């Protein structure tokens, strides 16, 4: 039995902290990543969501340093972003060129990250991660000189880097939307996250550069440069297939 | 890019590389101990985490992980006995309120009180703590939601009190999740009225 509320009740409904809620759960797309950035969502009925997402869900307001950290963590543990960066700088020797390409990439992903979250552009995470995988394969083919053979001339690598930067940013935005950010402090947190992404990218780039510079000094670089790019291509294709499998599997709903 | 014109003569010297590697290793160690450890494990051996405000993140993550593991173990064991924390049904005002419940939360402890409601039924509520702020998440879910079901969220935040209406978005359980994020014991008193079947603690 239940009683009817007797007319007298008209309390103002206070809806503090509305959030960009995404009624969407999925198996972790980043199973491969050690220290995956997003733990699988656990329904409220069973209590808690753990990990970075749990932290974000239980806090609110402007949190600059934590979001810088989360952005950097996302980049440093994001093997797909790192593989693409590796491909981009594989044949770049001058710091100036590296600066130009990395800036184009950063510009691309910042643009879609910020606007994607603010406009709540939600693309299926598997599909966008598949496109990111494809960007790795593309760059490997570019490095192998295959694209130039196919198209008669090499497609502008600067434009491609910028374009794929836009795709990577959409992937980042999808991840951020999955965090169900509170609207309170959204913009500063978002900018902090983006700043963190750039810091993480810079740190990762330093390590990649040191490693590849060491390798370049050895004669094995010339001998195995092609092999490395073939492997990069296969990793990209592997990522695409893995993500498409996730997209097409029934559990995805 | 024109690979042929990229001459290897711009390669950094072994000396430069060795120095860069050393700096990188040092920086990596510093970041691991000073940033990652506080932010992931809540441990702060050199105090940098506290300065940056990252230790809190680690502590929250650790407590969430512990709780998630405990819940999973409970589910695996068939799911009895979620510790009951002195929830007493009392103090039902003769007025519009139909139910009143007071729960006691230890630091970091959480609890859920929910109303069984049919779709579009409208309940009203008011809750307040005896002082400290609690994290709250007002949400609802249908009966027996599938694993991974994302509950409908009405509101969330951190406060000492909240009141308003709750209009059920579907048949099911709709109500409040609270977590004590303070360092001392906090009591939360909830009063409800309006259209619903029953108020109860979720286990």
Write up what this structure looks like.
- The complex is a heterodimer of chains A (253) and B (203).
- With 253 residues, chain A is mostly helical.
- Helices cover 65% and strands 0% of the residues of chain A.
- Chain A has 9 helices and no strands.
- Chain A has helices spanning 51-58, 64-76, 79-89, 95-118, 125-144, 146-151, 157-178, 186-217, 220-248.
- The two termini of chain A are 37 Å apart.
- The model of chain A is unreliable at 1-46 (pLDDT under 50).
- With 203 residues, chain B is of the alpha+beta class.
- Chain B is 27% helix and 34% strand.
- Chain B has helices at 14-41, 48-52, 55-76; strands spanning 88-89, 99-105, 110-117, 122-129, 134-141, 152-159, 161-167, 172-180, 186-194, 198-201.
- Chain B is elongated, with a radius of gyration of 25 Å.
- The termini of chain B are far apart.
- Chains A and B meet through helix 1, helix 2 and helix 8 of A and helix 1, helix 3, strand 4, strand 5 and strand 6 of B.
């Amino acid at each position: 039995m239940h009683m009817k509320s007797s007319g007298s009740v008209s309390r103002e409904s206070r809806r503090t902290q509305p959030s960009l809620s995404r009624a969407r759960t999925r198996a972790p797309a980043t199973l491969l990543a050690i220290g995956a950035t997003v733990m699988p969502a656990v329904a409220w009925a069973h209590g808690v969501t753990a990990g970075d997402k749990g932290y974000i869900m239980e806090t609110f307001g402007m949190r600059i340093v934590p979001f810088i950290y989360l952005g950097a963590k996302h980049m440093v543990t994001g093997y797909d972003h790192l593989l693409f960066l590796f491909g981009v700088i594989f044949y770049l020797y001058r710091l100036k060129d590296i600066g130009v390409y990395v800036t184009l990439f950063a510009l691309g992903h910042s643009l879609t990250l910020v606007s994607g979250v603010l406009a709540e552009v939600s693309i299926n995470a598997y599909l966008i991660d598949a496109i990111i995988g494809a960007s790795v394969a593309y760059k490997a083919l570019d490095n192998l000189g295959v694209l130039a053979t196919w198209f008669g001339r090499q497609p502008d690598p600067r434009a491609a880097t910028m374009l794929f930067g836009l795709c990577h940013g959409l992937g980042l935005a999808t991840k951020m939307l999955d965090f169900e950010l509170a609207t309170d402090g959204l913009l500063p947190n978002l900018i902090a996250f983006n700043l963190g992404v750039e810091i993480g990218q810079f740190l990762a780039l330093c390590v990649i550069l040191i490693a590849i510079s060491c390798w370049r000094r050895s004669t094995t670089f010339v001998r195995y440069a092609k092999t490395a790019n073939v492997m990069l291509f296969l990793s990209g294709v592997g990522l695409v297939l893995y993500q498409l499998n996730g997209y097409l599997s029934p559990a995805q709903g | 890019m024109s690979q042929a014109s990229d001459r290897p003569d711009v390669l950094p010297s072994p000396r430069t590389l060795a120095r860069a590697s050393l700096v990188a290793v040092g920086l990596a160690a510093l970041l691991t101990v000073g940033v990652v450890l506080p932010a992931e494990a809540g441990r702060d051996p050199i105090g940098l985490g506290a300065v940056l405000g990252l230790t809190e993140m680690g502590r929250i993550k650790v407590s969430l992980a512990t709780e998630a593991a405990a819940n999973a173990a409970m589910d695996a064991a068939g799911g009895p006995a979620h510790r009951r924390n002195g929830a007493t049904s009392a103090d039902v005002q003769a007025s519009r309120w139909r139910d009143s419940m007071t729960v006691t939360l230890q630091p970091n402890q959480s609890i859920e009180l929910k109303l069984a409601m049919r779709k579009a039924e409208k309940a009203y509520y008011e809750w307040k703590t005896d002082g400290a702020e609690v994290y709250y998440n007002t949400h609802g879910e249908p009966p027996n939601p599938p694993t991974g079901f994302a509950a409908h969220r009405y509101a969330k935040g951190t406060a000492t009190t909240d009141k308003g209406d709750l209009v059920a978005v579907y048949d099911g359980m709709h109500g409040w999740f609270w977590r004590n994020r303070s360092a001392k014991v906090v009591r939360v008193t909830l009063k409800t009225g309006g259209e619903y079947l029953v108020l109860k603690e979720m286990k």
